[in-house]
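re: ur question from yesterday

yeah so i grabbed the chain u mentioned. its 216 aa long if i counted rite. heres the sequnce exactly as i have it in my notes:
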Amino acid sequence: MKQSQARIIREYGPFPGASTVGGVDYDGRYVWLATGDKLQALDPASGEIQKTLDVAADAGTAFDGTHLYQIAEKRIQKIDPNTGEIIATVPAPGDGEDSGMAWAEGSLWVGQYRKRKIHQVDPQTGAVLRTLESDRFVTGVTWINDELWHGTWEGDDADLRHIDSRTGDVLERIDLPEGVHVSGLTYDGNGSFYCGGGPSGRVRQVSVSPRKRAEK
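ran it thru and got these structure tokens back, copy pasting raw so excuse formatting
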């Protein structure tokens, strides 16, 4: 297994009215932040919040190229990012214990924090298509091309892990500094992770070697 130390290249926040950052996802322009009772669109270049949607946003956030998906308690909301309208809802697989979320190849990939699982979920019905097991608490979930990554956070230790999307085996690990936590996780397609910092109310940009394969 490849192992390295995280290189944090920028820190954002805390943000007004946002005491915690849960889910994060990148839509090609903004990094969307789940901050409890709203979704906020962060411009990573300026560090400023550009848009706010008044929707429940407890945990993971995902973007399918058109719509946002947001975990709120025991449900996943499908949201119009322009208006904040909730278009549809499906049950969340963790029944209120869900964490991060990502979109890839027509499915949602949803972390279940304390159960140490990642579920592949049908976005139309909420049905669980398959489940991967982890040996650590699962926080944020994202894809880098055909690589499945997730964040972990237990006590004061946190890291980012590339796992085999068929078996769950850990292939690569990036360790975060002691006391730096990761809640949500997303990749920007250009060599950076954005990591939600949970109750710190911050987002951290972490450098990662660029991947050359086609995006999910």
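noticed a couple things. The mean pLDDT is 94. also The first strand starts at residue 2 and ends at 5.
anyway ttyl
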